[in-house]
Amino acid sequence: METAPSRLQQLLSFYAEDPNDPFTIYALAMEYRPTEPQRALEFYQKLLTEHPDYVGTYYHAGKLLEQLQKPEEAEKVYRTGLVVCRRAGQRHAGAEVQQALNQLLGLDFEDE
After folding, report:
1. Among 10, 18, 51, 85, which residue carries the largest CB count within 10 Å?
2. CA–CA distance, 40 with 25 (Å, rounded to integer)
3. Which pLDDT value is given to residue 5?
4. Entry pTM
């Protein structure tokens, strides 16, 4: 009896068919994130480079960079993300990126 392909296998086959689809690249980054953060980062970097208007990337890429102990790179991603979110009129995404940046910079005073 054949087993159904895993989500990762499905995404990889979609990626093989169309390596330029930002949604597939994003989905792969999210899929790899818990188990292979370096691999996830490669997909986030691809999005940041080749699909800079893909708003969803900035928050998650920044968080992953923080997790990988790269705060300067995370800050750069968040700051770029703010510009992209504003330009796209994506207020909610922009607010999330701003909050992540504030936390990174120690400007998040809500918990005090």
Report:
1. 85
2. 9
3. 80
4. 0.89
